[in-house]
């Protein structure tokens, strides 16, 4: 039998605000502020946003609710949850895959989080001032290909993550997300106001909100689906784990709706903070990694008070990333405590060390370990690819299949209605989605993910982040916005 240790007073979130802050904290991250703007930028701006919104409503929210149902019904980590709800059946493999995915996601995600610390430091020490695009590119490259600083920042970020998780749900995760999330909103609002009031900002606003429906094609739809998964933290059991700490009286459908809304609003506001600034200063919205670490610092220094805004922006990124990394580490820690009988302290220490080993290897894949490649991808890129494009879709697929076809309508209704306390008139629609719509749509993302290897697509070989800047610009932006090309980017 799984889970002995959690019989004694399982830790939980104290109430609705804590549930929302922690779970929205997981969802809101680098995916919103860094990935969304550039994926939207590459896929038609407003057209992408239109499709993305439909997908969040029709697929994202139902999948999120399914994870909550599994977690809160079982009161366990993803592996233990499937063991409890489906004893002696192979469903636990999905949970196990989630735990493995947690290691992999943490390794590369914390690496990028470490870059944000470097840029906080560089902003604060004034080193971003007076540099042209080439110098900023060099700076990013030199940092990334160094062996000491990226490792150091990784370790510092991983330690913060570990320290918060070690303190538990209420005294750790809840305590920090309660003030970090409001702080994130304040910073985001300040940046957004600054950006949209710049002269020339309207081009950026137009780009984000004007849907050109002729740009919608199967690629745009599938990119939007993939972005929705990553951004909402669904598909690998992070939300099963958080759901297991939800109070029994939480209205999980309304929580899912509110969290999805928050996640989407942050992505849009991040777009509103970034695109107008990019357009006002003649940058390019599809610059990938370079957009945040190269293009934006270039923009900040042309702005009055740029040092402050640059510092604020990288603090924002670090905070958003931290509330996400703790949610991923919690998956491993819950598994270690509940399945291997470790204390929380020991579980967190062990998980942090194990992740750090993989993380350091990942960080060094931009320098000394760069020769380790498969399919022309280094370790960092392999981890990003195999989690986001393979494991999340597989996990999400089986999660909805589990709810739709195995756990069934009766038990799901009982959980979502809090044993009959709440009205659940959406059930027929919800069941139809988890049985048919979501599995089919997810299967499509997955097949598209494999099409990643298709050499005719521009993503083919993404080795050097600066190459991405160039290729993205040539392939999509010239087509989308020929007049916004920036000479300094070449
Ligand atoms: N959603 C977060 C972001 O947008 C990242 C993240 C946290 C995540 N937990 C996850 C992604 C679980 C996939 C699965 O940055």
Can you write the helix and strand succession as a string? HHHHHHHHHHHHHHHHHH
Tell me the structural class.
Answer: mainly alpha
Rounded mean pLDDT score: 85
Give the helix level as a range of percent: over 70%
Q: Looking at the structure, what is the overall shape? A: globular
CATH superfamily: Hydantoin permease
Enter the CATH topology name: Hydantoin permease
Name the features.
490 residues; single chain; binds tryptophan; disordered N terminus; disordered C terminus; mainly alpha
Q: How would you describe this structure to a colleague?
A:
With 490 residues, the chain is mainly alpha-helical. The protein has a single domain, classed as Hydantoin permease, CATH 1.10.4160. It is 72% helix and 0% strand. Helix 3 crosses helix 17. The structure holds tryptophan. Tryptophan is lined by residues 26-27, 29-32, 105, 230-231, 233, 235-236, 238, 324, 327-328, 392.
What is the secondary structure topology, with strand pairs?
Elements: H1 16-27, H2 30-42, H3 46-74, H4 78-85, H5 92-124, H6 133-144, H7 149-166, H8 169-196, H9 202-209, H10 218-231, H11 238-243, H12 252-280, H13 289-300, H14 306-340, H15 344-363, H16 379-416, H17 427-450, H18 465-480
Helix pairs in contact: 1-8, 1-12, 1-14, 2-10, 2-12, 3-4, 3-10, 3-12, 3-16, 3-17, 4-5, 5-7, 5-14, 5-15, 5-16, 6-13, 7-8, 7-14, 7-15, 8-12, 8-14, 9-12, 10-17, 13-14, 14-15, 16-17
Bound molecules: tryptophan.
Tryptophan (TRP) is lined by residues 26-27, 29-32, 105, 230-231, 233, 235-236, 238, 324, 327-328, 392.
């Amino acid at each position: 039998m799984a889970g002995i240790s959690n019989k004694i007073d399982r830790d939980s979130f104290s109430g609705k605000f804590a549930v929302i802050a922690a779970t929205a904290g997981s969802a809101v991250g680098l995916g919103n502020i860094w990935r969304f703007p550039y994926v939207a930028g590459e896929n038609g701006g407003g057209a992408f946003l239109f499709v993305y919104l439909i997908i969040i409503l029709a697929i994202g929210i139902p999948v999120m609710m399914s994870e909550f149902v599994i977690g809160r019904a079982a009161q366990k980590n993803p592996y233990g949850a499937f063991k409890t709800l489906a004893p002696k059946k192979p469903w636990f493999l999905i949970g196990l895959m989630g735990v493995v995915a947690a290691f992999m996601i943490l390794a590369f995600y914390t690496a990028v989080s470490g870059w944000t610390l470097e840029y906080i430091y560089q902003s604060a020490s004034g080193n971003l001032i007076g540099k042209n695009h080439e110098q900023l590119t060099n700076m990013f490259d030199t940092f990334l290909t160094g062996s000491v600083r990226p490792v150091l920042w990784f370790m510092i970020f991983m330690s913060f993550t570990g320290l918060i998780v070690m303190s538990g749900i209420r005294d750790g995760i809840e305590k920090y997300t309660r003030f970090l999330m409001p702080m994130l909103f304040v910073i985001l609002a300040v940046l957004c106001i600054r950006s949209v009031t710049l002269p020339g900002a309207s081009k950026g606003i137009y780009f984000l909100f004007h849907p050109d429906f002729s740009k919608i094609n199967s690629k745009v739809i599938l990119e939007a689906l993939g972005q929705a998964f990553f951004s909402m933290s669904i598909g690998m059991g992070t939300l099963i784990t958080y759901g297991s700490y939800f109070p029994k009286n939480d209205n999980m459908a309304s929580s899912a709706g509110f969290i999805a809304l928050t996640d989407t609003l942050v992505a849009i506001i991040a777009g509103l903070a970034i695109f107008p600034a990019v357009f006002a200063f003649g940058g390019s919205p599809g610059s990938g990694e370079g957009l945040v670490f190269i293009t934006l610092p270039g923009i900040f220094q042309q702005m009055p008070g740029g040092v402050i805004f640059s510092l604020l922006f990288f603090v924002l990124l670090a905070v958003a990333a931290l509330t996400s990394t703790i949610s991923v580490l919690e998956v491993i820690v819950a598994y270690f405590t509940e399945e291997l009988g470790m204390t929380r302290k020991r579980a967190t220490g062990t998980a942090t060390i194990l992740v750090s080993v993989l993380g350091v290897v990942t960080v060094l894949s931009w320098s000394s370990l760069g020769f380790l490649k498969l399919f022309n991808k280094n370790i960092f890129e392999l981890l990003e690819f195999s989690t986001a494009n393979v494991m999340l879709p597989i996990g999400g697929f089986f999660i909805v299949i589990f709810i739709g076809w195995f756990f069934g309508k009766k038990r799901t209704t009982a959980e979502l209605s809090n044993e009959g306390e709440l009205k659940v008139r959406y059930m027929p629609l919800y069941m139809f989605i988890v049985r048919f719509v979501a599995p089919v749509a997810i299967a499509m993302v997955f097949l598209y993910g494999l099409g990643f290897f298709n050499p005719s697509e521009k993503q083919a070989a993404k080795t050097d982040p600066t190459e991405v800047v160039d290729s993205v610009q040539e392939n999509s932006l010239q087509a989308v916005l020929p007049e916004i090309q920036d000479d300094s980017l070449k």
